[in-house]
Amino acid sequence: MDMDKEPIIEPIDLSTGIEFTCATIAAAVFAVIIVSVLLILRSRRKQKNTFLIVGLSDSGKTLIFSTWVGLTM
């Protein structure tokens, strides 16, 4: 092997004071937090005007809904 050649890969100069491992971990944690917040906000927006009536038959729910909307049967 010829040792006189320059290396193909240059080492990263760490004199700038940036630790790339810490920056990568911080970016990953930040991305997870942002995605979690967006998913929570999206799920809350979908459930705004919904409610659940448990224990009623379909005809009972229809009667309540038609009375609430003002429809006559």
TrEMBL record:
Keywords per UniProt: Membrane, Transmembrane, Transmembrane helix
Listed InterPro entries: P-loop_NTPase
Keyword Transmembrane: yes
Listed transmembrane segments: 20-41
UniProt-recorded name of the protein: Signal recognition particle receptor subunit beta
Protein source organism: Panagrolaimus davidi
